[in-house]
Protein: Transposable element tc3 transposase
Amino acid sequence: MAPRTELTPALRERICELHSAAGWGYKRIHKRYPFVSLSGIRYTIKRDRERIGGVSKPRTGRPKKLDQADREKLLGAIAENPKITREDLLAEVSHKVS
Structure:
């Protein structure tokens, strides 16, 4: 697989199933799925307990300053008046951003 791509939930489940139920080791699983790196297989098996239903946990990151409703307000104001000033746009979202 290309670097930094996430495994599909089905492939993740199959890897964990081969490890736990069939008793396969990391290298044997890697021979079966050579497009998944050995370290990726180890990481997938190690993190299996943290996943609920095979779904990845959400990524961490800085919270968004504007929610979806505020973004829609801004886009609506711009569509309504393309020559709107920056101050008027900031007033639309109660000066949440600068």
About this structure: The two ends are 41 Å apart (CA to CA). The helical segments are 9-20, 26-32, 38-46, 68-80, 86-92.
